Amino acid sequence: MSSIISVKNLTKTYDNGFQALRNLSLEIEEGEILALLGPNGAGKTTLISAICGLLSVPENTITVGGFDVSADYRNSRSLIGLVPQEITIEPFETVKNAVSFSRGLFGKSRNNAYIIQLLKDLSLYDKRDDKNMTLSGDMKRRIMIAKALSHEPRILFLDEPTAGVDVELRKDMWEVVAKLRETGVTVILTTHYIEEAEEIADRVGVINKGELLLIEGKNELMQRMGSKNLTIELQSPASEIPSSLSHYNLTLSDDGLQLNYRYDVRAQKTGIVDLLSELKKASFRLRDLQTSQSSLEEIFVNLVRD
């Protein structure tokens, strides 16, 4: 799979001296869904703005579809649909006209069938003749997404697209993203809902303090950095963990009815068999066993903390 976006050694320092990005390099593959995670102020929005040509950067630093965003802004920008965090739409325009106008700004010919289908996909069709200013915040967010997709871009940036919106919009949004993936559109999203990234992304990039800490396949990342937890339910409460089990990474619940054992998924031996044998020797009577794996959110929090 070839790269559709290439960022090389990007550094961005604002006039007040704040360095938002530090020597950041990134290759985004065509057709993938990439989730960019990072705390507030990490540099995610600055990176997106730079790729979209909204910030000045040196030539030969960022290319989109082979076009330099500095030397050939028009061609590079025509490939991109952007849904920013802020809602900026024409208050006195109707929904359909606003979306159609955005398509025209990119020099695309009229395609009424495409616009109508887009409005239907985002549950906007019934509001197509309403003025934007009469709609709720969730509906306005839907219009922003429709405007970004109006010119049929090959790349879609979603900067916190579902922050503060209802469950229905989040569901519609991810259904649209799933359809875009089928047509080969590249999707880059930032989100505070890390469970969404865990569900939909192919790769995950983590940014903190302007630096790209890692970018890796989601499944590979969770396998490499994740851990598993074995929950052991006891038939009767225990008052403490015996010293004979002190070399295991065990914790006892407050009610004494659960033992929790965390182990490395990469280790050749998990130690579970030995642990269960020693629990039997220590006269623990087990009721049930359950395993769970660390989530992408836990991995992200640990990375940023470290």
Explained architecture:
The chain is of the alpha/beta class and 306 residues long. The protein folds into two domains: 3-222, P-loop containing nucleotide triphosphate hydrolases (Rossmann fold), CATH 3.40.50.300; 228-294, 2-Layer Sandwich (Alpha-Beta Plaits), CATH 3.30.70. Helix content is 32%, strand content 28%. It contains ten helices and 14 strands. A six-stranded mixed sheet has the order 6-7-8-3-9-10, with helices on both faces. A hairpin with a 5-residue loop joins strand 1 and strand 2 (19-29). Helix 3 (95-105) packs parallel to helix 5. It is elongated, with a radius of gyration of 24 Å. The protein starts with a strand and ends with a helix. The mean pLDDT is 86.
**CATH superfamily annotation of the largest domain:** P-loop containing nucleotide triphosphate hydrolases
CATH fold name of the largest domain? Rossmann fold
Radius of gyration: 24 Å
The arrangement of helices and strands along the chain is EEEHEEHEHHHEHEHEEHEEEHEH
- How would you describe the shape? elongated
Q: Helical percent range?
A: 25-40%
Main sheet: strand order:
6-7-8-3-9-10
User: What's the tally of helices?
Assistant: 10
How many separate structural domains? 2
Give the terminus-to-terminus CA distance.
32 Å
Number of strands: 14
The CATH architecture of the largest domain would be 3-Layer(aba) Sandwich
**Beta-strand fraction estimate:** 25-35%
Mean of residue pLDDT values? 86
Main beta sheet: 6 strands, mixed
**Overall SS class:** alpha/beta
The low-pLDDT segments are none
Please report the first level of CATH classification, the CATH class of the largest domain. Alpha Beta
